[in-house]
Amino acid sequence: MKQNKVPVSEYYTKMRGIWEELDSMGELLVLTVLTDEIVTFLNALGKQQQEHKLFQFLNGLDDEFGPQRSQILLMTPLPSIEAACVMLQQEELQREALNEVHVQQETSALLSKGIERSSEGQVLQIIGYPNWHPRSRRFPQKRGGRGPGGGGTGRGQGQRFMDRNREAEPRFSP
């Protein structure tokens, strides 16, 4: 079973239901005498089953939890499934909170300019283009021209070179 973009808690609940159903199908023998060896064996078997369930759970997680999966598998001793689930839920909540902050910042920046969420092109037209952009107010458009330079170099540099030449005009002193 895979997580498939559902919340971690929902994925864990589905996995737990499957494990409980599988556990109910297994028939266990009733032991009348418990020796130390049998108790040790049953404890080891229970630990192995819990680790197997942890591996199943971690293996079914979405790829976005890859770093957390690796971090959990490096822990010694391995955490319980419940503890691993709590760690993953905390990570999920942190990501959601950061995503909400990012969306709120973007939206509030646009709203402060009197703009509702829109495409980047619309924002540039309303707020204004950068100085280097051909549609910038700094470079008035001329009819039939090739952009801000009026066709000078073909790279939008003509106006800048013309301005430099004007500033460098020689001065005459009497």
UniProtKB/TrEMBL annotation:
**Which top-rank group of organisms is this from?**
Eukaryota
Q: Where is this region: Disordered?
A: 132-174
Signal peptide start-end: none
- The UniProt regions of compositional bias labelled Gly residues, in chain numbering, are 146-157
| Listed Basic residues bias regions | 134-145
Basic and acidic residues composition-biased segments = 161-174
Name the UniProt record assigns to this protein:
Retrotransposon gag domain-containing protein
What is the organism of origin for this protein? Carnegiea gigantea
